[in-house]
């Protein structure tokens, strides 16, 4: 035994993964840990996939409904998706096999704001949670659970599930204990109280999860690495986008809207562009920045190490292999600069609004008025999901959306006449950025926004087509406040469908 289970009551429940999954029945709603790859259970899901195959071999059906924090490790998502093991999936995925099943209509997918998941489950929108499968890094003498590399919805899963299966993973460094802040003060209305978090580094909860020991039906010991997040080095396009964002920060400081050294808490989505923006921060004169986000990427570790970032709050780590090594080797240092929280708090509208978060998220496309599509390719096929982008964009102090100006080698323009799906409305997006420039939409009417977005953000090749559309829309009799030619508004998308390119 690894010595991580310090409570005898739990030690007596240790069993194999194959035995543990016998507690999961067909049609169960199963809520698992994991946010990005971090903290995904390592052995129970593969064992469950085996059990599903076995049961199917007898002629019976076996599917589960799967609830998570956000995406889980790709291997885990795939293991269940490729055998059609999931009836309903909620709230976020980013894995090719699952995406395909969803778009073929073979897996139900409910795509909701990550801050809403906990309360929607408490209120019973998803029925009963039959089993929670949660990875932890240890069990204390008192039977409390030390979280691992993510928190996500684990507090809620442990609270609401009828049965709990724990994976105690001794690969997670013991020094992680104390990095987490699990807040137990949330409630449903009319009993809600203000969340007493006024600074990024505030600790308002406790370092461990509580669970009713009678519900814990199985404990499985593991020693398995988290799957690393892919990290591609910034390219020219993402460096250019980052450059515009950093210039914008300077502009805001000069205008007295952001504090000079520390700015306001930063939130950045996952991926190339976010990494490039964060990576560029240590070139400025910033000291003691803070981040209030949902994940921590590699660039953040470097910024913490050199003092550019004083404290980062999130619900999960999303590190590459090298980042995981760096964190684990220096866990006692990073524990004082990183706080992991339940996602209902890391993404909470009240807290995001109070702190004045600078929200920077990726998008698929925006229209000439600033409506943003983050989730649906050509308006119909799900990409990943809204994730936390709405939580931050709607409530941020400044809400920015960042994207290359084209996709698929230029065949797709990220600026279109009208987005065929809207995740973030024109009322929520304030600044759009591509490699060509930054459109500051604050204080502008729709017609002024349109000209600015086309001139600053669209790829030069698409600018004439967009101007042509807008000019003709504006000259229609009764063009209105937000001019459109309704029969033509999706012509770029239609052309892509028919010819494989939005180009004329
Ligand atoms: O696909 O790799 O197959 O070519 O979409 O595009 O440019 O690499 O951008 O990785 O930042 O993803 C919106 C999906 C952008 C992401 C989205 C294709 C493009 C490529 C990826 P290929 P890029 P990113 C914070 C909040 C919602 C969740 C969120 C996302 C692939 O940012 O999922 O924000 N956001 N969470 O070719 C068709 C278009 C396209 C397009 C790009 N207009 N039409 N395909 N692509 N634009 C999260 C955290 O804090 C963790």
From TrEMBL:
Matches recorded under InterPro entries: AcetylCoA_hyd_C, AcetylCoA_hyd_C_sf, ActCoA_hydro, ActCoA_hydro_N, NagB/RpiA_transferase-like, Succinate_CoA_transferase
Pfam family for this entry, one: AcetylCoA_hyd_C
Domain Acetyl-CoA hydrolase/transferase N-terminal per the UniProt entry, residue ranges: 7-221
Transmembrane intervals: none
Domain Acetyl-CoA hydrolase/transferase C-terminal residue range list: 323-469
Family: Belongs to the acetyl-CoA hydrolase/transferase family.
Superkingdom: Bacteria
Organism ancestry: Bacteria, Bacillati, Actinomycetota, Actinomycetes, Mycobacteriales
Full protein name: Succinyl-CoA--acetate CoA-transferase
């Amino acid at each position: 035994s690894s010595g991580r289970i310090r409570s005898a009551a739990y030690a007596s429940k240790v069993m194999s993964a194959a035995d543990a999954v016998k507690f999961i029945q067909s049609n169960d709603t199963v809520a698992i840990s994991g946010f990005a790859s971090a903290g995904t259970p390592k052995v129970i899901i593969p064992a469950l996939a085996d059990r599903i195959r076995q049961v199917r071999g007898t002629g019976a059906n076996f599917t589960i409904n799967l609830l998570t924090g956000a995406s889980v490790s790709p291997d885990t998502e795939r293991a269940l998706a490729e055998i059609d093991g999931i009836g309903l999936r909620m709230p976020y995925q980013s894995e090719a096999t699952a995406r395909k099943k969803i778009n073929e209509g073979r897996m139900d997918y409910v795509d909701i704001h990550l801050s809403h998941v906990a309360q929607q489950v408490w209120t019973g929108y998803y029925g009963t949670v039959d089993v929670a499968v949660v990875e932890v890094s240890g069990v204390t003498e008192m039977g409390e659970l030390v979280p691992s590399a993510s928190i996500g919805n684990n507090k809620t899963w442990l609270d609401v599930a009828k049965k709990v299966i724990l994976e105690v993973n001794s690969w997670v460094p013991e020094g992680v204990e104390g990095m987490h802040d699990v807040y137990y003060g949330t409630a449903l209305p009319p009993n809600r109280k203000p969340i007493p978090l006024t600074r990024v580094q505030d600790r308002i909860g406790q370092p461990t999860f509580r669970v009713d020991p009678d519900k814990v039906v199985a404990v499985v010991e593991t020693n398995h690495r988290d799957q690393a997040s892919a990290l591609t080095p910034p390219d020219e396009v993402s460096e250019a986008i980052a450059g515009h964002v950093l210039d914008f920060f300077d502009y805001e400081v000069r205008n007295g809207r952001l504090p000079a050294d520390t700015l306001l808490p930063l939130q950045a989505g996952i991926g190339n562009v976010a990494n490039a923006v964060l990576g560029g921060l240590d070139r400025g004169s910033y000291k003691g920045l803070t981040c209030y986000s949902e994940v921590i990427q590699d660039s953040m570790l470097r910024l913490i190490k050199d003092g550019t970032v004083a404290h980062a709050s999130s619900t999960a780590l999303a590190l590459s292999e090298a980042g995981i090594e760096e964190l684990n080797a220096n866990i006692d240092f990073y524990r004082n600069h990183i706080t992991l929280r339940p996602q209902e708090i890391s993404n909470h509208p009240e807290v995001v609004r109070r702190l004045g978060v600078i929200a920077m998220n990726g998008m698929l496309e925006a229209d000439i008025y600033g409506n943003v599509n983050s989730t649906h390719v050509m308006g119909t096929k799900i990409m990943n999901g809204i994730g936390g982008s709405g939580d931050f964009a709607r409530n941020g102090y400044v809400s920015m959306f960042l994207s290359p100006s084209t996709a698929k080698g230029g065949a797709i323009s990220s600026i279109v006449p009208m987005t065929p799906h809207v995740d973030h409305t024109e009322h929520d997006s304030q600044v759009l950025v591509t490699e060509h420039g930054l459109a500051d939409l604050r204080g502008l009417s729709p017609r002024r926004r349109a000209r600015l977005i086309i001139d600053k953000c669209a790829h030069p090749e698409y600018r004439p087509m967009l101007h042509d559309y807008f000019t003709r829309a504006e000259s229609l009799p009764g063009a209105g406040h937000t001019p459109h030619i309704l029969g033509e508004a999706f012509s770029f998308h239609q052309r892509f469908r028919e010819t494989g390119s939005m180009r004329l």
